[in-house]
Design goal:
172 residues; alpha+beta; Alpha-Beta Plaits; 2 domains; 5-stranded antiparallel beta sheet; 26% helix; carbon dioxide fixation; plastid; monooxygenase activity; RuBisCO; RuBisCO_lsu_fd_N
């Protein structure tokens, strides 16, 4: 166990566990800190707005790292994110921050989100479906199976006829 910060997680923090494989020569502490920074307030370049505000209340913190048993150069980096970083009720905003750009980060050879714990106070900000799952199932006349959606690819370039055919095949 590598303790990185004297940081005690709060009940209101979003907690993420990332499996991290640093590039050769990159210490695990640096890799964990890079994940926390890049997935919250950090960026790969200097921006002129950096000095306009303190980012302490928004930044993710890698608070400890465990080596993965039986795996060379793999670690679980535990990152705490303050709720102030996220827009209430927006799954998109939360996931864009936590798993957006960070997967292409050069300090890492590999990265995988292993676990995510979302505090109850944050989940209560999500409204859910406007009518509930039963109303949606009744409208679609689909029961006893998951309801799935998809994006037709390519998004552009299909004729109306071919796009309609692709949608039909997807929904069939």
């Amino acid at each position: 166990l590598i303790i990185l910060l004297d940081y005690k997680t709060k009940d209101t923090d979003i907690l993420a566990a990332f499996r991290v494989t640093p590039q050769p020569g990159v210490p695990p502490e640096e890799a964990g800190a890079a994940v926390a920074a890049e997935s919250s307030t950090g960026t790969w370049t200097t921006v002129w707005t950096d000095g306009l505000t303190s980012l302490d209340r928004y930044k993710g913190r890698c608070y400890h790292i465990d080596p993965v048993p039986g795996e060379d150069n793999q670690y679980i980096a535990y990152v705490a994110y303050p709720l102030d970083l996220f827009e209430e009720g927006s799954v998109t905003n939360m996931f864009t921050s936590i798993v957006g750009n960070v997967f292409g980060f050069k300090a890492l050879r590999a990265l995988r989100l292993e676990d995510l714990r979302i505090p109850t106070c944050y989940t209560k900000t999500f409204q859910g479906p406007p009518h509930g799952i039963q109303v949606e199932r009744d409208k679609l006349n689909k029961y006893g199976r998951p309801l799935l959606g998809c994006t037709i690819k390519p998004k552009l370039g299909l004729s109306a006829k071919n796009y309609g055919r692709a949608v039909y095949e997807c929904l069939r």
